[in-house]
UniProtKB/TrEMBL annotation:
Family designation: Belongs to the PPR family. P subfamily.
UniProt xrefs under PROSITE patterns: PPR
The protein, known as: Pentatricopeptide repeat-containing protein
Species the sequence originates in: Platanthera guangdongensis
UniProt cross-references to NCBIfam families, sorted A to Z: PPR
Keyword terms of this UniProt record: Repeat
PPR repeat ranges per the UniProt record: 109-143, 144-178
Protein's UniProt keywords contain Repeat: yes
Lineage: Eukaryota, Viridiplantae, Streptophyta, Embryophyta, Tracheophyta
């Protein structure tokens, strides 16, 4: 670029890297990344997030480099790594990557919490999932419908109908609208318990809720 009279800059590297990530040109992206890193011209967490989504197999290495360069590891990047490892390497690898990232002082947000709650539930580690959910709420993340949905489903599968209904009420209290997955889990749970009155009540509530959403759209 210098040869052609184009001064290298952070924004230039970012604008070059992102399109190549989009078309999954791994080799070119890697060359640009290494060149930008050498010149100290890569600072945008969004660029790293796009690279993380492409380079799932080396994402922890990328995060280590971000920490070294004092670039903030965002919650979206953290969550993307957890989900990426879960899909490509398995759930236990996802757990290991979470512990590694925590050791690097990466801060968890609602995306990471939702991802890890899902991983724990899929592994059958329900106490861990519940503990992480409580931690999420204590930190003020009250509107993560994905996390609520996962925990409601967990309660339903374990016959904890009172806890599931309490959580539904908690969602509404905090202004977090239940989604179709929450209602499906509750309907399935009460159906298996033969709580037909509750099934009817939830079904009507769900129809009203989603009719309202359709009108708002």
């Amino acid at each position: 670029m210098v040869k052609w009279g184009i001064p290298p800059s952070h924004s230039l590297y970012a604008s070059l890297i992102c399109p190549f990530v989009g078309i999954r040109e791994v080799e070119i992206t890697g060359d640009l990344y290494r060149e930008a890193k050498k010149k100290g011209l890569l600072r945008d967490p969004d660029v790293f997030l796009k690279m993380v989504l492409m380079y799932v197999e080396v994402t922890v290495d990328i995060v280590e480099e971000m920490v070294e360069m004092k670039i903030k590891v965002t919650d979206c990047i953290f969550g993307a790594i957890i989900n990426g490892y879960a899909k490509t390497r398995g759930l236990f690898s996802s757990l290991k990557s979470y512990e590694k990232l925590k050791s690097l002082k990466c801060e968890t947000g609602q995306v990471t919490y939702a991802s890890m709650i899902n991983v724990y539930c899929r592994l059958g580690l329900y106490p861990n999932a519940e503990s992480m959910f409580v931690e999420m709420l204590e930190r003020g993340f009250h509107k993560c419908v994905v996390a609520y949905s996962t925990v409601v489903s967990m309660y339903g599968k374990n016959g904890r109908d009172r806890d599931a209904m309490w959580l539904l009420a908690k969602m509404k209290e905090k202004g977090c609208e239940p989604n179709v997955w929450v209602y499906n889990s509750l309907l399935d749970m009460h159906g298996r318990l033969l709580n037909l009155r509750q099934v009817g009540k939830l079904w009507k509530e769900m129809k009203v809720q989603f009719a309202k959403c359709t009108l708002e759209i």
